[in-house]
Write a structure and sequence with these properties.
The protein is α/β, with parallel strands linked by helices. The chain is built from 13 helices and 21 strands. α5 packs across α6. The relative contact order is 0.13.
Amino acid sequence: MTTPSLDQAESQVASPLVQTATSAPAESPLPTAAPTPAHKPVRRPWAQRLAWAVVFTGTAIASALGGGLLATTTPLPSWLSSDSSQPLDLGELWQSGFRYRVTRPVNIVLMGIDEVRTADQSEPDDLLAGRTDTLLLARINPEAGKLSLLSIPRDTRVEIPGEGTAKINHANLVGGPEAVAETIQANLGPVPIDRYVRVSTGAFKELVDLVGGVQVYVPRRMVYTDHSQGLYIDLQAGWQTLNGDQAEQFARFRGDAQGDIGRVQRQQMLLKALRERLTNPRIIPRLPQIIRVMLRYVDTNLSLEEVLALATFSLELDSDSLQMVMLPGRFSETGEYAASYWILDEAASQQVMNDFFGLDTVALLSNSNARAVSQLRIAVQNASEDADVAREVARRLRQQGFENVYVVADWPGTTRQTQVIAQRGDIHSAGVVTSVLGLGAVVADSTGNIESDLTIRVGQDWSSAATGTQ
């Protein structure tokens, strides 16, 4: 990865990534600011006065569980230091900060880092030197108004440049953010990695407690103990408002057959729940406390101008603009390797990189390895008040020639609109299925049935369409 040094990046007055409301768009592409090879984070003076923009995109901290959407920050007014109790003047902050705009698509690697258990809590460097518990590749696309997130399971089997074969969560431990970026490029293709954000796992628990907990659906009783990792999990089934410790338990639970992939799904569920809490106006009085939490736990090489531009972009997003997919692959077979891995599906992964990350140079799926839509595994899930609707939809699909259709457990609660969920990023096939059904929305999300290629979550609109009512 050929990039300018961090010193060079810091000397730039304004990054080519952004423009102010009165400036012309930058003509040159954004130079990648290379993370330092060592583990030590680079902390800018402005980062010592971290601000509140951590609030929107569901923000950054899904650390212990999940990496995070964007640990974005803004500078506080000069009269407010990081330890000040004076309330934030959000009107002044808005007028002074949010005039910056993202000018082109940008890729950012987001890492939730396991705390090193022997770390001195007063030393942030140690808190960010461990393995990645969560790894996300984010693409901010201002032209399309989209934020795409690719979840890369921590157990993904990869080649780490200079280290050999290992799980991808090992890359930060051996080489910091630079090794993580190089590993992604070596295994998923030469996608530009423009910036990085690292968040220590301690941030998530504190943030959840600060916002009053998050509401999620626990599908079944979760009881699990792992003395080596200090995990003691005991959660009841059903809708729950989880505190910080419970939310971490929910994210890190591994006592089922879904393993690491189940963790990815639960992380994204928590991420969405956290975003709902953070975007509630009642959170505003707690922003100074949130800022102080982030001061302890976040490391990034984003410049001030870039952070402000990302903040503005994030505030303009709606729920339909967020796409969350998981790296396609499979669980390794028993005895296939000495350790258990997530084995990436190279052809499907190339398609995801092309569709969501603009990697035009990758080889697209050929006729020899692309399955017909009719052969895809399609899970059907009831999310309506009609108990028979999932079986009805499955029967309809089989009549239309779909060969691998099966019904899974109902979704908790109901949804108005049917969704065809492309958890592996295959939005083209999802579109074909919606056309066959005659209704439904294509959703890029990782919460579908793990064993399927597509999940149809049948909403109330199916029964309405069948009876001719609205």
